[in-house]
Every structure is written in C-alpha cells, then in structure tokens.
Amino acid sequence: MMYLDNAATSPVRREVLEAMWPYLTADFGNPSSHHAVGEVAARGLAAARETIATALDCRAAEIVFTSGGTEANNLAVKGIALAAPRGRHIVTTAIEHEAVLASCDYLRRHHGFEVSLVQLGDGGLVDPGEVAAALRPDTTLVTIMHANNEIGTVQPIRAIADIARAAGVPIHTDAVQSAPWLEVGLRSLGVDALSVSGHKLGAPKGIGLLAVRGSVPIEPVLHGGGQERGRRSGTENVAGAVGLAEAIRLRASASASIGDAVRRSRDAIIDGVLGAVPGAFLTGHRDARLPAHASFCFPGTSGEAVLLELERRGIVSSSGSACAAGSDDASHVLVALGIDDDTARTAVRFTLDSTIVEADAARVVSAVAVAVAAVGSLR
Ligand code: PLP
To answer: 236 in ligand 1 pocket by Cβ < 6 Å?
Structure first.
C-alpha cells in the first residue's frame, strides 16, 4: 500500500516515540507538582520548549502547548481578537481551515466582529496589496494561512506580515501544513502568532502549539489552573510536547535535498497525471506550492469513486480535506477558487512523504489514469 494522505495525518516517527517513552513511564509526573517526580517532568517540558523555540525562531516563553492545530487556531483568533484594546474587525481569506473560519464566525455572531475576506488571485494566491486594501483603523487581527491543506498553495506570508505589522495589526498564520516542509520561524516569517500541529509532522495526535510574541496580548480560551503562563489551562501533555520537540528538531535538521527529491516526485505526478488523464486540471498554484502536494479535479467523475478505485490498486489518497470527508458538501476552498460544486466534488489530493521516489510517481500516474477511466465509464 502506498500512503499518500500525509496532509491528513502522518505516522509517529520512531525517534519521536523513543523521546516520549520515558515521560509516559518512569518520568510520568505532573510538571506543576512541587516534588521530585513533578520536577523531572517540568524539566522535560522546559527542554522541549527550548528546542522548539530555537527551531521556530522565538523565545521559549512564547510557546503555548495546545491539543493540536484546531485549538492553536482557536486560541490565536479568539484570544488575540478578544484581547485587542479596541476594534472589532478581522481580515482573513475564504480558504482558511475551518478552525479559523469557524472561530471568526463565532466572533461575528457573539461579539459583534466584522470579517473581511481578501480577494484571491491565481491558484488561491493572496496579493499582499489586497491585504493592505482590506485593513481598517478598527482591524484587530489578520489571519492568513501559510500553506493550504487542500490545494497546497503557499502564501507570501512574509510580505503579508510586513504590511499588517507596519499598520500595527497583529498577524497570525496557520502553519500546520507548512511546518513539515518549509521554514516556519515566528520572527523570520515576521508574524505575531503561528499554529503548528504534531500529527502532521511525525509526532502524535493530540499535541500542537501556538507560538505567540510576548508583546501580543492574548485572552485564554481554556480557563482553569493557569498553566502555560495563564494562556492555556490544563495539565500539559508532557510526553506529547517532548515528541513534538523531537519531530520539529528532526524537521529543522533535515537536509534540503529531501525537499528537492519529494518535489521531483510531486512534479512527476502532476505532469504525468495532466498528460495521461483527459480533462484533468491541477488545483492550487503550480509553483507557489508545498513540495509534497499534488491536487487535481477530474471533471465528469466523482472524487470519492476515484479514491475507492485507487485504494483497490493500493494507493491511499484523499478527496481534499479529512475534516470534510464523509460530508457531501463541495469543498469551501475549491468553491472559493471559482470551481463549481459538481467539479469540486471530483477533487483528489495526493500528499507525499519523503519515502516516495520518482518510480512510485509513475505507478501513481498509471493507477490514476486507470481509476479515472473506470469511474468515467460507469457514468
Ligand atoms: N490547519 C490546517 C491547515 C490543517 O490542515 C489542519 C488539519 O487538517 C488543522 C489546522 C487542524 O489541526 P489538528 O488536526 O491538529 O486539529
């Protein structure tokens, strides 16, 4: 079986599990406990925070551990918007993850915020000039993802951040999909807050983080014992944090050639599929794209049926987003790109890992050609 759904989730890396193991067994303490057992856990947590801060170009005290990307996005959007001293206006895009869009919608419905969606260019790319045009004197937050999970488009986040910060508006970016492949430093990207999720990176599900500059006020979403400097209550997932630190460290020390190799396999899939399947088109931007991401529409088919055909041939892919899988709704991302609902339902996404080589790409291309032909002939 060839697993090509790494944007949905990835297996835990052996090194990550090994780093976690002591904190699940002998060093099981509660890091808030004032005794030796707790102190061992607290030291593990502090070391994890330091490792992550180095890799994410921020200070250890700026890391808030969360249960994952969804919680990090909720904390960033609600927390920064509600702590802002004045104004009730948010700038975002229509292709954000649901955790951002639903948080914005919550602020609109319950706290009187207005939400502006920035116009999208080719392949869902954001023009920083459009962000500048959307800013108002009462804007309290800009939240624009670094890379999109469904179409792989990578935004010019540094240029967008420079515009927001020059206007004195905090900027958050959802880096859940970019963190496994691209540099995602808080200061090097120029953002104020950045979300990361462990399970996309070779750490387990149930751990993630928000890196948020110390200068940016943030209202907690979870209230309780005041852990994480009062920004996120709840006993920390020490083993998860240690695993996330190891996954981020491994990613930061990985050689650039890994990204280059996966990019070549991705390109072989994109070029091969577009050449072999009549009517197929790529979704998202051709060049400003995650190195491991290939996504298509196959008009005249059903994406779900193509997935099943591919799975019968040993290839595991996805119709777009795991969150929307199972629902019959057309993807909000593809619809925002101007793709009609019926065509959006023909989407199939392949998200690679570093083990996929160009020979695998050839196998994917021929399986896709056969699967699409099989589904098309049934209709
Ligand atoms: N943001 C993006 C871009 C994602 O792709 C995902 C997960 O699919 C999330 C946020 C949510 O992350 P988690 O599954 O850790 O809650």
So the answer is: no
Say if ligand 1 is within 6 A of residue 99 CB: yes
- Annotated catalytic, 297? no
pTM reported for the whole predicted model: 0.97
Tell me if residue 239 falls in helix, strand or coil. helix
Active-site hit among 58, 104, 297, 323: 323
The whole-angstrom separation of Cα 252 and Cα 247 is 9
For residues 198 and 240, the answer to whether their CB atoms sit within 8 Å is yes
pLDDT per residue as tens digits for the range 296-352: 999 999 999 999 999 999 999 998 765 555 567 899 999 999 999 999 999 999 999
CA distance 210 to 187: 14
Is the distance from CB of 210 to CB of 195 less than 8 angstroms? yes
Give the angle 272-330-208 at the CA atoms, nearest 5°: 80
Query: 177, 194, 331, 332: which to mutate for ligand 1, most atoms within 8 A of CB?
Result: 177
Give the residue whose CA is nearest to atom 5 of ligand 1. Answer: 149
